[in-house]
Every structure is written in structure tokens, then in C-alpha cells.
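Weekly modeling sync, notes
Attendees: S.R. (lead), two postdocs, one rotation student

Agenda item 3: backlog of single-chain predictions. S.R. asked that every request posted to the team notebook include the full sequence so nobody has to chase files. The rotation student volunteered to paste the first one in as an example of the format we agreed on. Action items at the bottom.

Example entry:
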Amino acid sequence: MIRAEYGVRVHCLCSAMGAGLFMGCVRPVLAMGLVQILMASSVLAAQGHSPAQTEQKQTEADRVDETVTVTASRLDLLGRAISAGQGTITQNELRLRPAYRVGELLESVPGLVVTVHSGEGKANQFLMRGFNLDHGTDLATFVDDMPVNEVTHAHGQGYTDLNFLIPEMMGAIDYTKGPFNAATGDFGVAGSDRIRLVRDLPTMISGSGDTLGNERLVAGGTAHFQNGDRLLGAFETDHADGPWRYPDNFRAIKSMARYLHGTATNGFDLTGMYYRGQWRATNDQPLEAIQTGLIDRFGSLNPTDGGFSERYSLSGHYRHGDERQKWQASFYATHDRLTLWNDFTHYLVDQVNGDQFQQDETRTKVGGTLSYTRQDTLFDHIPSQTIVGFDGRYDTIFIDRRHTRQRVVLATCPDSPYGGGQYACNADSVQQGRVAGYVQNTTHWLSWMRTVVGLREEYYQGSDVSLITGASGHVGQALFQPKGSLIFGPWNRTELYLSAGRGFHSNDLRGVVGTFSGDRFTAGSVETPVMTKAFSEEIGIRSTPLRHLNTQLSFWRIDFDSELIYDPDEGVNEAGPPSRRQGVEFSAQYNPLPWLELNTDLAYSHARYRTNNPGYYGIDGLYVANAPNIIWSFGVLVDNQGPWFGGVQLRWLGSYPLLEDNSLRSSGYQEVNLDVGYRFSKHLTLAVSLFNLTNSHDNAIEYGYEYRVTPTAKPVTGATVHPLEPVSARFALTLTL
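Predicted structure, as returned to the notebook:
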């Protein structure tokens, strides 16, 4: 009877794939899971068995082989994952993977593209699952359990700046796809990545330089104490010019120190970080200006664009427990300053001074997490794990936007009726906080079936005071987020996942309370909530069909109540129409030899707005701008622990629409990067990196919006582009003591 029910369920879901994964086939997972949590909670209070008894009840198929070959890029999570889109990138791949900039190390996450449209010090652009995630919206990023995405940000909701990271201090990356993990809340609809920091760093010093005028020097190490405690740290200094006609002149210093006591399961750690960077930026430029010879391919209509960023942080963990139960607490406190000068539309608004604007932000945020994990056995033979957790965050933010010419603040703001005075355009004082509680239960009902069910309740509140008009507002909202997965297997090292759940992204509080709004959409046409709901569902398969060949396949769909769209005139995100995305992803990693890995990721997505009246929202069609259809990558990692090591990576970002009516499109880009290293001894290593090996003339990112290239030109809606850097070589020499 159980097998018959399973066959009907799978047939229903597989039949629905072509029609968009009908929710009616997946929602029973949640209904079953809610009953399960209530059942499990009552039984846990009455029953408990030792870890040894629990282990005896598990079959060999449930045990996970955690052996990692030398070049393994991802851990095998068969028997543990909550969905097909979950994984862990090993530290080894991060060391072997060629990356032009630190943020590109996140491209190790399957189906994720990390690029730039501005200077080196600015946050990256992220694209995944049919999303142009802008600078981070809908991809939740954590470093040492600190959320990196910034709410109510000067330059865009969810802004994710990873320039403060020192690559040598990065450990593994745990990632998820979809909002199926109850521990992840805001910005986690498309996925999440959690960057762990290393617990030990050999004493080392490394210097590098390349053919584009980029230099880097890093030094670090670990002090070991007699009681087993460790103090490790690193310091880095960077300079980057790039190929630009007006060099970036990016200058940065980074430092990081960690103190660790005990083990990763029983002990505590404290981490302090500091980062400071400043740069000139060549933003995306009108393609028209390049084609007419007004500027060259690497030129800029406004060479005074750029930015400054500074960040301090202190974070820590406390862990205590055993094989049956464990407690974990974390905290963080950060202080950030940011200034950006951007000129995207040139002379569209102000034909005399141009459209450059300055965005300033000062932010202090504090927060933390607390979780309790318990292993039990239900009815003497059913292994079960329950996690109960809480997390919270509070941000104090000052934001302003000023009209500038060559970085000099002007007395008026042409796109604001409140121009003049100290703050020419807009300025706000924002207080914003959230708190969430969640529970997630995993139960192995049979040797070939387990369920994962999560419930999360989020409460957001905030207040904003406009320092220009004196207007103010206070809002609050609660959101219930059920999540669940029904998992069958493993059979012959194969598992089937049926997942569904609700997630959300928060919105810029200024737009929520109405103290500030942009002009992209018809005034008052979109009511902006504090949290915009999304529902996602997924069917996935994880399999090891051959020895050392790991594969993952998933069919997914995401429905958003409102899409966030970037407004280049105002430099902010605004709430737009509802949207739907659906697609398929495939990943594979093959280790034919202990020192060799081949890996590939292929992602296809289809993104459209869900509205019968796009004009109501101020758009001309149903295409989601900058939503890529295809993302493909192929990589080779080599490390035989002898003298030679390295990696090669091919990335292809497919075409995507630049405008909602699909009248203007980008062809995407292809890029090949290569690393080759040689160990002269256990102390001295030389690495040579070749970026854009084929010297592709593609563009790293393209947009479509209205601009005016000169004061006398007519306004034009056209493509703006930021080219890939040309072929370049980087040489790095590392001394390890």
C-alpha cells in the first residue's frame, strides 16, 4: 500500500513538470509534515535512546561516507540533504579554482554567476535561477554566521559586499537552493551560501602581480597554545588598476584575527575583521557611446565615478553538546560606512551638470542566533532529529543621496521637489529590526523514506524619519513560513526529493512607509509590504550512478508576490509586479583518479511577470529584465600532492532580455580561466593564472534603460555595457613556514 501511494505521488508530480510543477501535487508534503512535527514532539518528551542505540537502528544505506578525495569539490550529502539543491563546497576547490576577484569564489555554487558592472570595491552582481539578483537580493549570504545582505541600503535592497574577505581565511561553503531550510529567512528564496572561516592557517606570506596593474600582498599564520587554543590571523593589502582608460586605482587593506578554544563541537571562538577600500569606477556605459567612438571599449563618460567603503566587525560562537544533543549560540556586531558616486543616465535629467549622484550610508547592526539540536528515536526504531532555533537582527542606518558633479555636491536636486539645503535629494534615519523562531524536524520513517519539515515565524518592524521633509512612519509585519521535504531512498545510491516552502525578501523600509519612492512605476500602483512572500517547489534527484560520480538534478518553480526592480535614476530597488520562474538544474562531479576532478553545472530557467496589465506597473511587457535563460560551467581540478596543481574553469552566461518587452537583448558571455601551480618544495609555491584565456570581447553585464550621452543629444533607451577584462596573466609566489 505504501509503495502504491508513492507511485501515484511520483506519477502526479512528474506529469506536472511540463506544466510548471503544479502545487497541488507537492502541498501534501507540508500537510504530512505538520502532523509529523506534532507527533514527534509528543513522543520526544516520553522517549529517548542513546546514540549507540540509534546508530544500531540505522541501515548501512543511511550512513554517509564523508571521505573526500584530494580534489573533491563538493561533499557527498546523500542521506543527509534536505533537497537536491543543497551542497557543501570544500576548501580544496576554493584553493584550486581560478578567480579574478574574491567574490568569484562563490561561482563554485552550482548555477551561480558572479560578475561586476562597476569598480573593484563595489559589491558584485549575482545571477542565479532566472534572477538578476542585483547586488544580492534573494541570495542570502553569511560569513561566520553574520548576514552580509544589507536591508534598506543606499544602493539596493540586499546589497552584498564580499570585498572584506581574505581568500586564505575562507573554509568550506555550505549552500542551499530554494527556501526549504527553516534556519534561513530574509533573502533566501533563490538560495543561500554560508561561508565558514578556517580554524588553522599555516604561517605564510604571498605576493602577486598581473599584467593589468593589479597587485596583492597577504601574510598570516596561527599561534598554538599549550592548552590547545589557537590564535590565527591574516593581513592583506591590494591595489588594482584594471584595463580601464581611467584606472580603478583600487586600494584596500584587510585584516582578520580569530581566537579559538576547544573543538568545533565544544568550545568558543571570537573573530574580528577590518576592511577599508576606495576606488574609481568605470560603470556600465552606453553601447551607443562606444559604437560612435565617443569613448573606447574600456572608457567612461564620467571618470569621477567611484566609491569608498569601510567595515568593522566582531563575531563569535559558543558550542556545547554531545552526540545526542547540542547547543549553539552566535553573535555579531558590525559598523559600516559607504559612499558611492554613480552616473548611469548621464545628461538625461540634468543637461547642465549631468546625472551623477552620491549615495552615503552609515550602518551599525547587531544580532545573533541560538539553536538546540536533539537526536532521538521514536517508537524504538525511528531515528529523529529536531532543531529549535531563534535569530534576530537590529540595524541603525543613516542614508542620504545627493546630486553631484565630479563628486562635488550641488545645491539642488533636479529629480526631487525638496532640493536644496544640506541634503539636496533625500536623507533618512532608519531603525529596523527582526526576530524569528523556527523548528525543523528530520525523521527517518523507513530505511528508504525520511521527511524534513520546518516552520518559521518572522516578525519585522521598523521606523523611518525623512530628514528632508520631516515625514515619518512605523510599520511591522509577521510572516509564517512552512517548509517541507519528502525524501525517498537511498536506493542504489539514489534519492528522490519532493520539496515545497514559503520564503520572502524584505523591502526598503523607505518605500514601505512612503517617506521615499522612485518614479519607475505609476505612483501608488504597488503597495509595498515589509516582507514580500514567495512560494517555491522542487522535485530533485541526487545519485551516484558510478563510483566517484556524483550527480544532482532538480526541477523547480518560484512564485513571487512582487518583483524587485532596480531604478537607475534613483539608485534604489522598487517593488514591481508579481513574477514566476521555473526551470531545471543539473550538476555532476566525477573523480576518475584521486588527483583529478571533472565538474559541470547546467541551469535553465524561464522568468515572466504574472500580470494582465503590465502598463499598470509602468512596464511594457512580461519579460523579466536581466533574467538569464541558461548558465553553464565546466571545470577541471588537478592536485596529486606532487609538484603540479591547478584548475581550469569555463563559464557561459546565456542570453537575457534587457527590457520587459524583449525588444533589446544581451547575448551573454563566455569566459575561460586557468590556474597552473608548481611546488618547488613544501615551503615555496608558484602559481600562474590566466584570465579570459580566449580574450573574449563579450560584456560581463548589460542593462537597458534611458539615458542621454551628451547635453544636446536626444534621450535614448538603449543598452549599457561593462566589458570583460581582456586576457591577462597573474603570478603569485607563496612562502609557507
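Discussion: group reviewed the output briefly. Residues 1-70, 519-524 have pLDDT under 50 and may be disordered.
Action items: rotation student to repeat for the remaining queue; S.R. to check formatting next week.
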